[in-house]
Each structure stands twice: as structure tokens, then as C-alpha cells.
């Protein structure tokens, strides 16, 4: 039994471990169990809980006693009795099963939808009846009040088969070209079907009319999602009277309230694979959604991930055992997986010993699944030359990296760095030498960066330790040993510049103190270079001498500040002289200016005027515009101010306006001359 943990949620894989072949005798099985530890520790919860090749669907009867699974090859159905923890019966079928439904509380009434458009009915004794539907079916649901089976598939019609009358009824005509899934609400029996166009159609079975339409394809596209094509509906499940969960072919799960056309939450699996199954866990308000690669459990109110599982083989179907923490999966492998998650609920009554077993395991923790794997980041894979394995089965994506087999990691590391053992051996030898040196008198090793600051801190620590010893107080933590300030003594970017203005003015007496420290630094560096043992420091001066030194420092503080300021002024003068010399040496080069299209060059005075105007305040510019006549400010009757202004026109607009004026004047003169000629002609005729 393997134990994995994600988000502090323990998941027990009950089907982990090797399975023994059926043809082995009991004596050989017992001998293998004695020899092999893995076989001895494995838990076979239900005997032979597997299929010959692949399992496609798995379901539990309403009474919880029987678990039924279908698979290949050959196509068959197997029924397992949980009370006996073994297989009840096995029946072979003529064609592969697309899906099936248990109509009764036990295994006595079962309906199978098969690949070749066949619908097969089984009773307690075996095969009962077989019929066909007009088009290939993909899913069906049973309407208990009317005893109708609703079939959806590669057609726009929904076929209805009444089991009481034993005949087909009028089909429901939909707008969809094809339908993938369907479900009936257990409370008010609303029939919903998911189409290939990414829509969900809701029908009322009583009136056989469509009562609602949801465009899930449009709602599934968000800012974070990347979709290649039009998403179709691949899974659909009701929860209670009002909630409905829809899964798309692009890996999104949408949670709807039937009273609204907008989804409450959209959850993306980030794998781009179709959602195979959706289950509701009501005790913790969780939704269990699964694609062919991962099973995710998340909160239906916030969308926060509760936990997730990634089986070794592809997932075809997921079944949650009612009112318990047991989860079963149908996989692309012979063995069907069984998981037990104690947080979701207790173990079923037919395997109540699991609770005691998990409690013992928690008291005595053993190695988990991840002990055989190595966590590596993308950068580690590039260093090892294994970046091409991303996306393969050899790497399992987890958080910001991947899990890979520890054996593969060691082989790749040996090939990438064949001298790793030599480096390891040298490091071990160096550690042992340092351990032996620790017994001797050690030198004070100073960091490479900010040596003077480190020496100052060491001196202050020594003084503080003496004070705390006298007062019997606890020692404060050292800045040199604190991880938060470690970078200050390692990174050269944090080096204190003692020649800067700020440092010299703020620390005027630092030169005197630094001289003493520099002497000490030189002594320590010599001792480190020679490798000699440190001699005992000379005894300190008397208290009277110390007090006289402090008083001298206080008196000389002002003088030191003045000296520093004089030095800074002299340095500034030298810098100015150097700059002036550089300016004289540099030759003046002509500057070229580019004129924009539609503008004429007048003079440099215009650009100078514009620059002066831009530097002026808004008040000065408004006054200037008032003088020019482009702006007029006046008081209104209400008491506020009113400003009217004229827009400045460009050269092209001015030229255009002047041309228009000339044209108008020419037309006026022509009209006047024409009217004058007409009047003359009229007068001539009268006189004539």
C-alpha cells in the first residue's frame, strides 16, 4: 500500500503492488509471499479486481453491495460482491460497451449501450433482450417516472424507448448536429444534454419542449485559458435541484446555477484534455473532476484545490463510493485502482478495517511514494541534458518542477559529471581537516566584503558580551551570523564607499577609528596568510585614559567636519578644472535639424520664442494671448468666468484660406460686372 500526500491530504493507494498470476498454485503463492516483501505487504481489497486488458466504465449499485465494471478484450462485464470481497459473476458481450446503467437497486436489471448501435438488457440470470437504435449512441439516461430511456449520439434527435410499453416513442428534435452526454436531474427530472457545439439544452420530459439553452463554449473561454478549437461538452452532472457541472473537451469545468446563464466558477485542468467524469462530494462541498491524466478535487465555492491524484495509466472513468472516502477508477490498464482518502469520509462498512490500518500507519510513518523519486526543476534538467524528456512518462509535473526516478537521476548525473565522486571525496577530506583545526586556537576570519564593518561589529559584540555578563542578561543575536544580513558581507554591490560625500560628512571621526581598524586588519591578514596561531591581545588601557580619549574626540569633532568640507571643496574645484579642459579639447560639431512635413523654415527665433513660451506659466501665456486677441476672458451673470479663444492655424490652412478669399473676391467682381452689363443692355433697348 502506497501513501502519498498533497496539501496535507493523505491518499492511500490500495491497489499498488504486484499482482500474482491466476495459474499459480496456492503453495507457490505462499512461497512468494514469504520471500517478497512487496507481495507480503500488498492489500488485495477485492480479489481479482481487474480486467483482461482495459477497463472503460465502473459503477456501484444503489444498495452499495455490488461494483460493476465493463472492459475489453474480449468485451465483458464483471460484477464484484463487496460482502464477499470477490467476483460475483462475469458475462462476455458481442461488442464493446460505450456506457451502462444499473436500473435496479442490485444487479438484477442492467442496460448496456454498445458500439454497434445495440441496446442490450440483462436480468439476474443473464441476457434478456437486444434491440437497435437508428444512429450510433454515445450516452443515455433513465427517466424513472415514465420508464423512458433517452439516447443521444451522432444525430440531432434524442431517441426515447419506453420500457413499460416496450416500444420507441416520438423522438425529441434538437438544434444540435450531434450530442455527446446527457443526464436527468434526480429532484425535478429535468433532462439536459451536452452538444458537440459546446451548448447544453434542457428539456421538460412532461411537455417534451425545450426550456433552456446554455452556451458553455463561450463561457469557458477566459483571459487565462488557451483554446485551439471550439470546445464541445464531454461531461455533465446534476447536484441537487439547482446546481449543474459541465465539462468541456478542452479541459474546463463550469459550475452553473440553473437560474442563471453565467457560470458560478470556471476551473481549468491546464492539460487541454477532455473531462471524462465529474462527481460531487457533498460532505466537504467538493467537486471531483477527472481527465485522462489527473483527478482534481476542488472547492465548489472558491475553486481552491483540495488535493489531486495522477495515476500511472490513463483514466477512463471515476466512481466515488457513496458516503465514504473510497474512490475507484477505470484505467487504460488491466488493474482497476482503488484509493482511500480518510479526509473525505470513513471507510465503507464492508472494509471498516481500513480505518484501523490507516491509524496505525499514521502512528508509525514509513517511507512514502516520493522517497523513490527525485524532485528536479527545469534548470536541473537542462544541466543534466534531460530537457527533451519533458512531456514524457519519465517525468511527472509537480508544482514548479518534475518528479523523476532516483535511479535515472543518478545515471544522468554520472554521465553529466563523471568527476562528481572526486569532488565529493575532496569535500569530505576538507571537512575532516576543518574538524581537526577546530580544536586549535582559531583566527578571526573576516568576510571578503565590508571587512571594516565586520571588525566594528565584532568589537561591539565583545563589549556587549562583557556588559551582559556583568548584568547577567541574555546575549543578543549577531548580525554576522544572521541570515537576513548575510548578503551584505558576501555581495560586492553592498560595499560601503568611504570616499563618498555622505559617508565623509555623516562620519567625520571615522578616519581616526578606521586607521586603528586598518592596522588590525593588516595584522589579521598577515596571520591568515602565514597560518600562524593568534597571540593573546594586549590588555586594554585604564578607564582614565579611555575617558580622556573620548573627551578629545568630542573636541576634535568640529575640526574634523571642517577639514572634510575643505577637502570636498578642493576635490570639486579639481573636477571642474578637469571638465573645462575636456570641453576645450573636444571640437564643436555642426548640428543638423530636420523640418517636419508641411512646415516652412523661417528662422531660429521662432523656435526660441516657442521654448520661452513653454517655460512660462499658464497665467503669463493667457495674458499674452489676450494681448494678441486670440483669447477673451469675461465675467458671466452667475459670477463665474467665461473664456473664448481662437485656434492657431497652420501655414497650409492660412494659404488655403487666402486662396478661398481671393476666389470669393474674383467671383464677386465677375457677378458685379455681369449685372452692370445687363443693366446697360436693358437701358439701351428702352431708348432704342
From TrEMBL:
> Mainly resides where?
nucleus
Basic and acidic residues bias locations: 648-663
Residue intervals of the Nucleolar protein 10-like second domain = 369-417
One Pfam family per UniProt: NOL10_2nd
Write out the entry's keywords from A to Z. Coiled coil, Nucleus, Repeat, WD repeat
Q: What is this protein called?
A: Nucleolar protein 10
Q: Which family does it belong to?
A: Belongs to the WD repeat NOL10/ENP2 family.
Q: Does the keyword Disulfide bond apply?
A: no
A single GO BP term for this record reads: maturation of SSU-rRNA from tricistronic rRNA transcript (SSU-rRNA, 5.8S rRNA, LSU-rRNA)
Q: Where is the NUC153 domain?
A: 482-508
Which superkingdom? Answer: Eukaryota
Region feature (Disordered): 529-557, 635-688
Q: Where in the cell is it found?
A: Nucleus, Nucleolus
User: Which stretches make up the Nucleolar protein 10-like N-terminal domain?
Assistant: 1-364
| InterPro entries, alphabetized | Beta-prop_NOL10_N, NOL10/Enp2, NOL10_2nd, NUC153, WD40/YVTN_repeat-like_dom_sf, WD40_repeat_dom_sf
